[in-house]
Design goal:
single chain; 12 helices; 11 strands
Length: about 350
């Protein structure tokens, strides 16, 4: 009497390689094997308890969003990028439309790629200014308003269709080196507050966040004077939190702010209670001593120390390291501004 049939792989049954078999082969020797194993443990735990189809559609859609976005951004990993937010309802006759296009042209001239939400209005204007070859569109399916504009639709490999808003927002922040927000409605303000929240709480490294409107448009000035000032007066945000953003009235002014932000500062590595500021230029000892005096309140213990570190491309860079309270992100932005204002003859020039 024969026993039960022995298990065999999908390939042995003539059905090709199963995704699980292919995964096991792909992760052999992978440099991130430990993290992959942890992700698989989470999926295993979920599979033991969750049978609802909608829950698994959410998991599959989220992973697909992340996989597709990483594929698009991987070739542009070493290029600075600026995300431009604004209303899809803005008409071509609105001065903000021309301003968004001018901003994108200036950004590309300064070496940036331009990311938008891929829709019409401000987003289409920014993509027109950047051109197809320098645009990346992060679309999300909506019942109205949000159809990919003709510029990014014609860009091969530069248009993403996200299933979920939260994965789309993740990549706006993850891939951006600067954010510029023009006048808009609920969606634009949601993107602004999401960005401010993640910056203020240290969930994303410091980057310039610029509010841009035409000179005769009081949109951001009114918001700043009423909403932001009211929150400060009531103690709902710290006084230094106003340093997390810049108000500007021209494309040149916006790009000057972005350029200044990266004059000496390059990037940051945020840990639980420490920060490492990667720099374009070493800070001389007298300037470091002055920074320690001016920002003693920012440092939890010890002092701001000069050192060297390896950047994202494997190059050696000067850096500053210190312990600090992540609730003081506005104060950290003030320190970065002081760094960028140092009189260093070999420091990177402001972008033009």
């Amino acid at each position: 009497m024969s026993g039960p049939p022995s298990p065999c792989s999908a390939a042995e049954r003539g059905g090709g390689t199963s995704p699980i078999d292919a995964l096991m082969v792909a992760i052999q020797g992978h440099p991130q094997r430990r993290l992959i194993d942890r992700a698989l443990v989470s999926l295993l735990e979920l599979s033991r308890h969750e049978t609802e189809p909608e829950a698994w559609r959410m998991v599959e859609g989220t992973l697909a969003d992340i996989s597709e976005a990483l594929d698009v951004f991987r070739p542009q990993r070493d290029v600075r990028k600026v995300s431009v937010f604004g209303s899809a309802r803005t008409t071509a006759e609105d001065p903000s439309h021309a301003l968004a296009r001018e901003l994108a042209e200036a950004a590309v001239a300064a070496g940036f790629e331009v990311i938008t939400g891929a829709g019409g209005g401000i987003m289409e204007a920014a993509n027109l200014g950047a051109g197809c070859e320098h645009s990346i569109g992060l679309n999300v399916d909506l019942p109205f308003e949000q159809h990919p504009n003709p510029v990014v639709s014609s860009c091969d490999g530069r248009l993403l269709h996200f299933r979920y808003f939260f994965t789309r927002k993740l990549f706006f922040l993850r891939e951006s080196d600067a954010l510029v927000v023009l006048p808009g409605g609920f969606g634009t303000l949601d993107e602004l507050f999401e960005s401010l929240t993640l910056i203020q709480t240290g969930r994303t490294p410091p980057m310039p966040l610029v509010l841009l409107a035409p000179p005769d448009d009081p949109f951001w000035l009114s918001w700043h004077e009423h909403s932001l000032a009211t929150m400060q007066q009531r103690g709902l945000i710290s006084p230094e939190d106003s340093s997390l953003l810049f108000l500007t009235q021209s494309a040149r002014e916006a790009m000057d702010q972005i350029g200044r932000f990266y004059r000496v500062y390059h990037a940051a590595a945020l840990q639980q209670d420490r920060v490492e500021l990667l720099l374009n230029h070493a800070v001389p000892a007298p300037a470091l001593a002055q920074l320690n005096r001016d920002y003693d309140d920012l440092v939890d213990q010890g002092a701001i120390q000069a050192a060297e570190t390896i950047d994202e491309r494997g190059f050696l860079r000067p850096c500053l390291r210190f312990h600090f309270d992540k609730r003081r992100m506005g104060r950290l932005y003030q320190l970065i501004d002081s760094l960028n204002g140092l009189d260093l003859p070999d420091a990177a020039p402001a972008l033009r």
